[in-house]
Amino acid sequence: KTVSDTFHVSLQVSSLHSFLSKANEPVILLDLLDGCNRRAILCLGLLNVTLLIVAVVLGIKCAKVKDGSLQVPHSAATQLINELSYLRSNHSDVIEAEEEATKALERALKNHAQLKVKIEQQRTINDGYQKQIEALRAEKTNLQSNISALEGSCGRCLPGWTLHNSTCYFFSYSRTSTVKKNWPDSRADCVRRGADLVVIDNPEEQKFVSNTIENKKTSSNFWQNGFWIGVTDIVAEGTWVWINNVTEVEQRYWMDGEPNNLGQHGEHCGVVVYSSTNPWKTWFDANCNTDKQSWMCEMPSS
């Protein structure tokens, strides 16, 4: 309303000025015109102030509206920028974590390979230790058996002899496994030792002799792993006697098909050999002079 009134006043003033410019009235009209001018000037001043206030208010309102309209997208953009920075930071962290994980995996694989090599080396070492343990156990068993033999024969049999019941036995294999003799030379060696070739008096002694020579093999040929014993039929073919001329010869100890007296010069001396199938059938006859075997001696313990 103020703007409209002001506009009407301006029109009136303009009309008045037009009227005054055209009319040539007396001084009264001049006074009237001065009063109207003052009122018009006052109104114009008030109008200018009002317009200024209105312009200021409108400027403030527009500024607020502009700021408000710009604030929303600015905050959204700020949020987006912040999120983008956060994502970039996280992306860098992820890349660093991935690189660290890759390095850790490579170290783990390297350690695994090294550990695998160490395990194989340790396994080889353990296998070697196991073999040594087995060898030591075997040696321990052998030493224990030797100790038992020494304890049983100490003071009763010569060194290198084995005590069984009240008799001392010597096996040539225990001194040398390569030297073999014919029957006469073997008996002569026993005599030089103060003994004679073994005479098997009973089944217990037969079993003892068979078990003792079990591990005393010198050849892959079965017939060359025997030991001369003191039985012969040199005096009368087919009549086997012991060298002490006392003990009766047990026929059941001959192997199947023995004695067979093979060869041009015959076989007149007895040999005992280990048999895994039947420990009671272990004798066979051989040529006393040409065949070479190990031998065993016996003599009473002291």
Structural summary, described in words:
The chain has about 300 residues and is α+β, with helices and mostly antiparallel strands. It folds into 2 domains: about 1-85; about 155-300, Roll (Mannose-Binding Protein A, Chain A). About 55% of the residues lie in helices and about 10% in strands. It has 4 helices and 8 strands. It has helices spanning about 1-20, 25-155, 185-190, 205-210; strands at about 160-165, 165-170, 195, 225-230, 240, 270, 285, 295-300. Strands 1, 2, 3, 4, 5, 6, 7 and 8 form an 8-stranded mixed beta sheet that branches. Helix 1 packs antiparallel against helix 2 (about 25-155). It starts with a helix and ends with a strand. Mean pLDDT is about 80; it is low at about 25.
Descriptors:
single chain, alpha+beta, Mannose-Binding Protein A, Chain A
Number of beta strands: 8
SSE arrangement, N to C = HHEEHEHEEEEE
Spatial extent as radius of gyration: 68 Å
State the major sheet.
Answer: 8 strands, mixed
Helix-residue proportion: 55-70%
Instruction: Count up the helices.
Output: 4
Determine and state the CATH class of the largest domain.
Answer: Alpha Beta
In short:
The chain has 302 residues and is of the alpha+beta class. It is 56% helix and 11% strand.
What is the fold's blueprint, element by element?
Layout: H1 2-22, H2 27-153, E1 162-164, E2 167-171, H3 183-192, E3 196-197, H4 203-212, E4 227-232, E5 241-242, E6 269-272, E7 283-286, E8 294-300
Parallel strand pairs: 4-8
Antiparallel strand pairs: 1-2, 2-8, 3-8, 4-5, 4-6, 6-7
Helix pairs in contact: 1-2
